[in-house]
Amino acid sequence: MNNKNKQAAEVTAPSLTGRGRGGSLKSTLAVSLNNYLDAGAIVAGASGITLWQNYLGLSEMHLGWLNAISANALGAAIGAIIGGFLADKFGRKFIFTYNLLVYMLGVLLIMCSVNFPMLLCGFLVTGISVGIGVPASWTYISESSEVNKRGRNICISQMSWGFGPMVILLFGMLFAPGGYLYGLVETVAHAFIGTDAPVEAVQVFSSRVVFFTLFVVAFVAWTLQRQLDESAAFEESREKNKSSIWENIKLLFTNKIAVRTVAYLASIYLTWNLVASVMGFFQPHIYETAGGLSNEYANMLSCIGWVVVVAITFCLSFFIDRISHKLVYVLGLLAGLATWLVIIKGVSGIGSLWAFSILWGINGGLGVQIFYALWGSELFPAKFRAGAQGLMFFIVRGLSALWGLVFTFIYGENGEGFTLAAYCMIALLLLSLVIGVLGCPNTRGKSLEQITRERYGEFLS
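The structure corresponding to this sequence follows.
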């Protein structure tokens, strides 16, 4: 086959989709549950953070530490750099086989927490598991996708990332004090801790129940993912390359194209994620303190935002493989900038809080994370594809952990620094917009093998 015919075949045929070439949607759905569990863990903590604060007498600094070591930041950072290189050495399926057992252990610790160290440990273990799973998940989805459906499948994965918070916040609203199902929470709480238990101890059971739903989903996901075939791209790479983990790390850090790609993707994701990490963990808390809403109403408003994320991403999934990625990227960040301009204008009532929630939902539906996941799995060779993503995730979530601590000082105990925080968010989103537009890659319609050859040559293809 000559080069012209070979390239034409690559565009029309699936890109090493594994043993079930027609089943990329099925495998995508199974692996995308990891995104549900990732975002769900973040928001489950956020939706009940005020209840844990009241139950354990936590300060804003305690909340900052919970955010810093959770799935939102440091815990995921540690897990990602471990999981990425493990996935490149032992396979994507290796991660799927064992990792969610760690996740379930972390969730169980949170469910049973009776003091701050125990709660902190549960957040950390859950966060590490989330980080381990992310590089393998996005890598597997891209490697198992047909060329003209790679963007669609990443969007499906992103929809799962939206479904997690949407469902968890809905549960948080229903089970919260005053919610429609709070009576069930009280019954469960009294059965475990007695009828004379303090009200704070009873109320926090609503958060324990929410985390239990994550435990159930994690078990289902673990069962499904254990049945997946290994990625064909990984198997082909393993047959050609017998290098160790350390050799892969060295190659990643010494290849100039790979280093520049890491710098670009880490920059656009970091600047956006510093904003998103705050929103993911503190959004209901912000509504309660700056907006004066009840815990139930705060969770409901946050849930609406995630409904918008899912709806927008669903619509995008039909077009992303056919339209300009740069255009979508710009539109998403413009919505993000408008979100924080609403705050600078002033929280004048419930209307501005609704606008804040909906605009941020549009940003999430068209957001940077979609393109980071897509480009991160396209722009590296299979030899260190997951490891590169793990490295970037480590950088981004690690710095997000520090930012979560800084944000608590900027924001203040009762939201008095919210306007200053909004200016910081706008500056970060502007950086993500400018860097993203300047470096936007042209990968649409190309197979992973074609992209690798164009960027790295035959040596790493």
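DSSP finds 21 helices and no strands in the chain.
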